[in-house]
Hints:
Layout: E1 2-6, H1 16-28, E2 33-39, E3 46-50, E4 53-58, E5 62-64, E6 67-69, H2 73-78, E7 84-89, H3 92-101, E8 108-113, H4 121-137, E9 140-143, H5 146-151, E10 162-164, H6 178-190, E11 196-200, H7 209-215, E12 222-226, H8 232-241, E13 248-252, H9 260-265, E14 268-270, H10 282-289, E15 294-297, H11 304-307, E16 314-317, H12 322-334, H13 336-353, H14 356-391
Parallel strand pairs: 1-2, 1-7, 2-4, 7-8, 8-9, 9-10, 11-12, 11-14, 12-13, 14-15, 15-16
Antiparallel strand pairs: 3-4, 5-6
Helix pairs in contact: 1-14, 3-4, 7-12
Amino acid sequence: MRVLQLGKYYYPYMGGIENHLYLLCNELKREVGLDVLVCNSQRANVTDEVDGVRVTRCYELAKVKSTSICPTMPFEISRRRYDVVHVHFPHPMGVMSYLLGWRAHRHAVVVTYHSDIVNQVNLLKAYRPFMDLLLERADAILCTSPDYMSGSEVLAPFLKKCHVVPYGIDISQFEATEDVLARAAAIRARFRNRPLLLGVGRLIYYKGFEHAIRAMAELDAELVIIGTGPLRGSLEQVAREAGVAARVHFVGEVHNQDLTPWYYACDLYVLPSTVKSEAFAIVQLEAMACGRPIVNTAIPDSGVPFVSRSGESGLTVPPRDAPAFAAAVRKLLADPELARSFGEAGRARVKQEFSKEVMTRRVLSVYRDVTRARAASAKPLERAQATSRAAE
Length: 392
C-alpha cells in the first residue's frame, strides 16, 4: 500500500500536529510505502529522508494569516500515484493543493480532523467551501475524540464517515529511569522542594495560563510554565499584579526529549485552556504516562476532558474560573493518596488507549477498510466498461 501524508510541517519543526505526524509516520513506515508532503519554512523545494521516511518540503512563497502559500505543492501531489492520500486538517494550502493537483484515479482519501478553525473567521469564510468539498470527497474522517466529533458543526454533515482515532504517544519515552529521576530531583531542588505545578504549551490566547497564575494567589505552591510565545510579557504582568511573580517561573522552551524529568518533578500537571482551539492536549498524555494527576478544564466540545476524565485521572473545572482551579489543586495537594491513585489510573489509561501502537493499528485498519471499499466499488465499473468496449 502506498500512502501520502499531506501535512503542514514536519520534524524538526516543533508543534502538536507535527509531533503527531512524525510519530505516526515512524510507525507506519514499517507497514506501508510512505511519502510525506509538507510546507518548507524556507524558500526552497527540498526532498530528504527523516528516520527512513521520505519528506518533500515545498517552497513557501509567503505566509498569510498563518497559512503557507506553496505554489509547487499541487504539482508535487500530482507527480505520483497512491492508494491512500491522508490529509491533516486544518491545512488550507494542503486542501487547495489537493483539489488542484490530484489525478482522477481510485486512491482513497483519509482526513484527520485535528481541530476547527476557531479564531480566524475571515479565513474560514474563504476556505470553508473548499474544505467541505474535500470532506465530501473523503472516504473516512478521523477524529481525535468523540467529543470533538459530535460537537463540530463542520463535521455534522459527514458523521457517517467519521471514526474516533485518538492520538498516541511513545510511552517508552516517559519511563522513570535512574537518570530521569535524578534530573527530576535536581529540578525540585531548584524550587526548594515545594509543591510544584507544571504547565507546558505555547504562550498564546487559548492556553489560559493567566487563570492558573491568578489561582496561585490562593495556593502555597510553585508554578512552572514551559514554552514560548507572544503573551509572555502580559503573563508576567498578570503574575506581578496577582502578587505571585516570585512563585511563577517561565523557563522558556524545553525540547520534547528533555520534558520527561519535568513531569516527574511536578506534583501535578495543570491545563487551564479556555476554548476548543485546544482540541486534545497531547501534553496530558505525557504527564499521565509519568503518573501525574491532571487538573484540566471542561471546554465544551473539546477532547480535553475526554483525555483526562474527572474523578478518574484528575479533576476537571470550568474554564476561566481561577477560584475553582485553585480549589481543585488544593484538594490534590492536600490528599497525596488521591493524587497517587489518579496518577496510576492515568498511566493505565494511556497504556490501554493512547499508545503509539494502538493509534497506528486503528489508522491502518481505516486504510485497509477504505482501500477494500474502493476496490470493491471499482469492479462493477470495470465490468461495465469492458462490456461497453466489447459491444463497440
